[in-house]
Structures are given as structure tokens and as C-alpha cells.
Design a protein that fits this description.
Length: 427
């Protein structure tokens, strides 16, 4: 078998393959032998039809099948001979297949670019080390206090105030037409929080239980829910109940109920530790983002479109899963999958280029990922998702996601090494 490679571009090659005539003839003969045993031809018993008759009836079929067999058999060997590793399925261009003649075909394949990464050690980075302040700690405590507050229905009817929780029904119209997605029954709203519809929350102040009101709300052009963006929606609201938030006391009992802490001080110590760790992780991400930015600026190269498409689709799938976990879909957001893919393209390109750079540096530095490290990561995933380890393993193996874990670990280890070798100026 003869193989040679024609370079079309740094990321695209044309692999030319020539299969010897004796191999072609052998494959054709073998196929006709198989065909003879099962072919049903009028006037001949099974297995007795001569080759000439088989060729008359099945020549085109045989040619197509043998052609495919020869490509499937020889192409992996051809790639191995020339050390070529496609990153996407090839596009084959076969020539005519004839017995007694060599069979020639070509395949256009996308490959990773040959890149040379230099000056990746000793990068200059800047970051700010921060300790958790007392005010931050108190804010965190107040947040926990709010999270564990109880809602109590007011005993005497009164007007709604900022900070009240209101249970209401509402329906919405646009241009006088009811909106199917604009209905709610027994909806809890924290007045003044801005987490529902701020303008609507403001209009609730002063109302009493059983009061009803019509409120027009003009939504900004960049509103997240695209169907309402830049539009005016009319809401009819009915107040059903007003509840007051009763905050628990920040005392020893609160600390005990929250996590079995011996004292409020012990809770504060744990909160400070967790908050400090979060700050350190944020600093670590900030520094590594600078590393990636500098590597991308220093190294410009073409990347295979197929890798970008794969990563783009992965980002779209993740977005759809996030929406599904919230009971929503792309239609609810008034956005098409094509538009989402377009929005993610630049992100996908950056991620692919970043990985190719880090993969190259990992190779130059002798960084690799062991099976044990992959198993440890799977264990982390199982613990984080509260699923059995074996179930997580089966899912990742069945869906071909183990390489994704390996790639993530390789990137993490490489960035950690680059961070160690960097010059960091702390502000």
C-alpha cells in the first residue's frame, strides 16, 4: 500500500492511498464467494450460480460494497503510516474500482495545527490578596438570617410596606391580548427586593388584602425575557395576603440549628474560613485568566472548524440543560438554537485555542493525566451530585465523556504549573 500526504493548510491535509491490484482482486473475489452462497437467482440453486451471472446481476452492488470495505480496512493503516490524527470524520474521494488495477482514493482530513509555544514561563501577573472583613462577615450572617426567616401572616389588615411578602394573583396583557405566560396564582413577592418585577413591586405599596389594581409596566429593550423586551405589559393584580418576615435571633441556638455549631463564634469562624477560601479561589481564577489572555495574545494560529463546532454544540447543550433545570427552554427565552450557537461561537473558539495551547505546553513539560486522577475526579463529581460512583462512571463512559474529563484535568495541571512559574505582583 502506498500512502502520501498533501498539505492543504496547517489544519487540513489530503491523504492519498493506493491499494495494490492483488489486494483489490482478492477482496472482490472474496465478496463474490460470499454473495454466491446467499444470492437467489432464478434458474440456479443456491450456491450454484457462476461468477459471470453474479457479475451480471450484482456488479454495481459488489463494486460499492468492496470499495467501502477497502477504505474501512486500509485507511486506519494509512493514517498510522504517516502519523496523521484527524480531529473529525474525513471526506473521501474514491476513484473507480476495477479488478486487476490498483484502487486509489483520497481523504481530506482536519488535523490539529502544529504549533510551537514559547515564552510561557515567567509571565507577569497582577492580583489583589484580600482578607475577609468584619463587615463582609456580618453581611453573610444577615444573608443566612434572611434565608432562615419565617413568614407570618399579619394579624390586622394594613397597607403593604417595603419588605413585606405578598401573596398575589396576576394576569398580563399586551396590546389588549391575554398572555399565556403572563399568569400567576398565589405568587409570593418580596416587595422592594427587585427579584420579581421592580416597577410592579413599587405599585403594590399601599394596597391592602383583597385590593386589586391595574399596572402598566414598560420593559427595557435588553430585558432577559425577549418577548417582553421593549414592550409595555398591563398587569391586573389581586392582593390575597400580606406576610411579615420574622428573622431568627443571631445567637447560640441559631448556630446550633444551622449546622450543629457549639456557639455563634464557631459559626463565624467557619463562615470566615469558607469566605476566605472563596476569595483565594477567585484570585486563582483571575491570575489564570491573565495567563490564558497572554498566551492567546502571543500565539496566533488557525484552528480546525470541526473542533469549534463540537465545542459550540457542547456550550449550547449545557445552556439548554441549565434552562431545563429551571423548567424553561429556548422557546421561553424567545431565542433560537442557531442564534445561541452564533452567540457562543467566539467563546468556543477561545476555549478550543486555549486547550490546544495548554495541550502543547503539557507535552513540552511532560505533564500527563493518570487513570487514578480520572477516577478521583469522577469521585468528586459523584459526591457533588449526590450520586453513586458506579452510576456516574457508567454515564461518563456510555456518553464518551471520559476524554472531556482528561482534557479538563490536563488543562488544570498545566495552568497550575504556569502559575507556579509566573511572577505575581500583589496589589
Amino acid at each position: 500500500m502506498k500512502v502520501h500526504v498533501e498539505e492543504i493548510s496547517p489544519i487540513k491535509k489530503k491523504v492519498h492511498v493506493e491499494v495494490p491490484e492483488d489486494h483489490v482482486a482478492k477482496e472482490i473475489d472474496s465478496f463474490y464467494d460470499e454473495l454466491k452462497k446467499k444470492a437467489k437467482i432464478k434458474g440456479f440453486r443456491p450456491g450454484k450460480a457462476p461468477r459471470s451471472i453474479l457479475e451480471r446481476y450484482f456488479k454495481d452492488y459488489t463494486t460499492g460494497e468492496v470499495l467501502q470495505r477497502l477504505i474501512q480496512e486500509t485507511f486506519p493503516k494509512a493514517l498510522s503510516e504517516v502519523s496523521c490524527s484527524p480531529v473529525a470524520p474525513p471526506a473521501f474521494d474514491p476513484q473507480e474500482l476495477e479488478s486487476g488495477k490498483p484502487f486509489r482514493y483520497a481523504a481530506i482530513v482536519e488535523v490539529k495545527p502544529e504549533i510551537k509555544i514559547e515564552d510561557y514561563a515567567g509571565l507577569n501577573l497582577e492580583g489583589k490578596k484580600e482578607d475577609v472583613g468584619d463587615e463582609e462577615l456580618e453581611e453573610r450572617l444577615k444573608s443566612l438570617q434572611n434565608l432562615h426567616a419565617q413568614l407570618k401572616t399579619i394579624s390586622e389588615p394594613r397597607e403593604i410596606r417595603t419588605g413585606d411578602y405578598v401573596i398575589l394573583d396576576y394576569d398580563a396583557k399586551m396590546d389588549g391580548k391575554p398572555l399565556d405566560e403572563g399568569k400567576g396564582i398565589d405568587v409570593p413577592v418580596e416587595v422592594g427586593s427587585g427579584r420579581f418585577i421592580p416597577t410592579l413591586e413599587e405599585k403594590l405599596i399601599g394596597l391592602k388584602p383583597e385590593d386589586e389594581r391595574d399596572v402598566d409596566v414598560s420593559f427595557p429593550a435588553d430585558y432577559a425575557y425577549k418577548k417582553w423586551a421593549g414592550k409595555t405589559v398591563s398587569f391586573h393584580v389581586k392582593v390575597k395576603e400580606i406576610k411579615e418576615k420574622i428573622l431568627p435571633a443571631l445567637d447560640e441556638e441559631f448556630a446550633k440549628d444551622l449546622g450543629g455549631f457549639d456557639s455563634l463564634e464557631a459559626l463565624k469562624v467557619k463562615l470566615r474560613e469558607d469566605m476566605q477560601k472563596a476569595k483565594e479561589m477567585a484570585l486563582d481564577r483571575h491570575l489564570k485568566d491573565q495567563i490564558v489572555d497572554q498566551l492567546l495574545q502571543k500565539n496566533s494560529f488557525e484552528i480546525p472548524p470541526s473542533l469549534v463546532e463540537d465545542q459550540n454544540q457542547a456550550l449550547v447543550s449545557e445552556a439548554k440543560l441549565r434552562l431545563a433545570s429551571q423548567g424553561m427552554n429556548l422557546k421561553d427565552m424567545d431565542i433560537s438554537e442557531d442564534k445561541l450557537r452564533e452567540d457562543y461561537r467566539a467563546v468556543a473558539e477561545r476555549q478550543v485555542k486555549t486547550y490546544l495551547i495548554l495541550e502543547k505546553i503539557a507535552g513540552q513539560e511532560g505533564i500527563s493525566v493518570s487513570d487514578e486522577e480520572v477516577q478521583d475526579r469522577l469521585k468528586e463529581i459523584s459526591e457533588r451530585s449526590h450520586q453513586k460512583l458506579e452510576a456516574v462512571k457508567r454515564y461518563y463512559e456510555k456518553n464518551g465523556l471520559i476524554p472531556e474529563i482528561q482534557a479538563g484535568l490536563l488543562s488544570d495541571k498545566t495552568l497550575n504549573l504556569l502559575l507556579e512559574k509566573s511572577h505575581i505582583k500583589y496589589l
